[in-house]
Amino acid sequence: MIANASQSSAMPPEQEKAPDAAVAPAIRLAGLRRDYGERTALDGVGLTVAAGESLVVLGPNGAGKTTLLRILATLLRPSGGEAIVLGCSLPDEAWKLRGRIGYLGHEPLLYRDLSGRENLRFHARLHGIAGAPAEARIAALLAAAGMERRADERIAELSAGMRQRLAICRCVLHEPELLLLDEPDSNLDAEGRELARGLIGPGTGSTRVVVTHDPERFLPEADQVLRLGIGEAAAVS
Amino acid sequence: MTSSRAAFAAILAKDLRSELRTLQSLPAMALFSVTTFVIFRFGLDRTSLSGSLAAGVLWATLLFAAVLGINRLFVAEREEGGFDAIRLAPIDRSVLFSAKAAALVIYLLALELVAVPIFALFFLHDLGGLAPLALVLLLADLGLAATGTLISSMAVNSRARDLLVPLVLLPLVVPLMIAATGATEPLLALGGPGYHRFGTWLMVLGLYDLIFGLVGYAVFDFLLED
């Protein structure tokens, strides 16, 4: 099933039929555009992702993959088109989405002068998780990421791979419904990739959008693939 | 939504823990103020100051020391992704403004715990005005924190941050400094503290705090937008 999602045709024909009212799509984009001044980073992106599905986003550097992810995460406002995420229209209802998204970007969003455990406690408190439940959740995540022994060291003292493991813990700490993952395997060794799969892999049940330069690794677990090109129409398959 | 009180406490505790661990702001602020007092002492060739001159030396020094801390207030959020983390969390974003302003008030109070005794040691013979001066310091710190937090959050994304903060902040705090020196002057008068127009200046300080506190709280959410 391959179809173009060009500016004129926002979604592939197979997906243009009305979604089942009882099962609203997790993500629905139509003609999505984002400009940075004169430059258009993203144009005419349209697709529908059902709840629990995995969308893999491919494309060369500068094609707008990270921009798309940041729009979905409500960190960037779209310049045009329609974006509905978990039933909330962006950017107007972005505030309703906060706390429902797990975002793993290029930066780990961890403070260098705090330890991994302190960082996770901080993020847990921001998401309304405190006390014993927070400690239990943090301990479980650190164990799942293989980071228990290094959890009390400052982030500045950890390797890039270990920071990525902690960033993954931070991303799933609040049990988000939607995971937005920008090159989630970056800096991870083989063991780290396997452990990460348990936390952010398709088995988690969350809807996932994965930006990657490693199609061999992620295509097998994709329900849909979005190919972004520079100056080309986006294509969904 | 996470309660604003819990989010406020989390952000403030994080900032204080980071500062205690790295000492990136407070030692520089304290060293600056002590050095400036030494320069004034030898530059003016005076062992005692009183009235408007004493108030001017004290507030000029505290203000420029405060700028050092204000410059760094949002650096961790900018460089380590704190802004994104806050924007992704189910919290009222204005809590970040309140927590950062509270952190800055604590830094300023800590600075004054070091700077004011040294100022008194260098320049004051009569220490009777120091107790009411604490109230002036607190009110001026609240105003400086509200304005400083607002300007720092706007300037942090600029590469010219170190230039932009004083350029925008200093004109905005002129009314605050006039009120602070006006309230301080009679407290440090020759022959012991007086209270001429002390209450009026305190009211001006309180009004400034209220206006800039409310403005900062109201507009901060928009400043965090992309």
**Helical amount among residues of chain B, as a percent range?**
over 70%
Oligomeric state? heterodimer
Largest sheet of chain B: none
What are the segments of chain A in which pLDDT stays under 50 over at least 5 consecutive residues? 1-21
Instruction: Please state the average pLDDT score of chain A.
Output: 88
- Report strand order across the widest sheet of chain A: 1-11-10-4-9-8-7
Number of strands of chain B: 0
User: Looking at this structure, what is the CATH superfamily of the largest domain in chain A?
Assistant: P-loop containing nucleotide triphosphate hydrolases
For the record, the count of structural domains of chain B works out to 1
Q: Largest beta sheet of chain A, briefly?
A: 7 strands, mixed
Low-confidence regions of chain B: none
Total individual domains of chain A: 2
Strand content of chain A: 15-25%
Count of alpha and pi helical runs of chain A: 7
Helix-strand string of chain A: EEEEHEEHEHHHEHEHEE
Coarse structural class of chain B: mainly alpha
Q: Could you tell me how far the N terminus lies from the C terminus of chain A, measured between alpha carbons in angstroms?
A: 6 Å
Total count of helical runs of at least 4 residues of chain B: 10
Please identify the top-level CATH class of the largest domain in chain A: Alpha Beta
Number of strands of chain A: 11
Outline the structure in words.
The complex is a heterodimer of chains A (237) and B (226). With 237 residues, chain A is of the alpha/beta class. Chain A has two domains: 24-100 and 178-237, Rossmann fold (3-Layer(aba) Sandwich), CATH 3.40.50; 112-175. Helices cover 27% and strands 25% of the residues of chain A. Chain A has seven helices and eleven strands. Chain A has a seven-stranded mixed sheet with strand order 1-11-10-4-9-8-7, sandwiched between helices. In chain A, α3 runs parallel beside α5 (160-172). The longest helix of chain A has 14 residues, at 131-144. Chain A starts with a strand and ends with a strand. In chain A, 49% of the residues are buried. Chain B is mainly α and 226 residues long. Chain B has one domain (4-223). In chain B, 80% of the residues lie in helices and 0% in strands. Chain B has ten helices and no strands. Chain B has helices at residues 4-22, 26-44, 51-72, 75-79, 82-88, 94-123, 130-155, 161-172, 174-187, 198-223. In chain B, α3 (51-72) packs across α9. The radius of gyration of chain B is 18 Å and the shape is globular. The two termini of chain B are 22 Å apart.
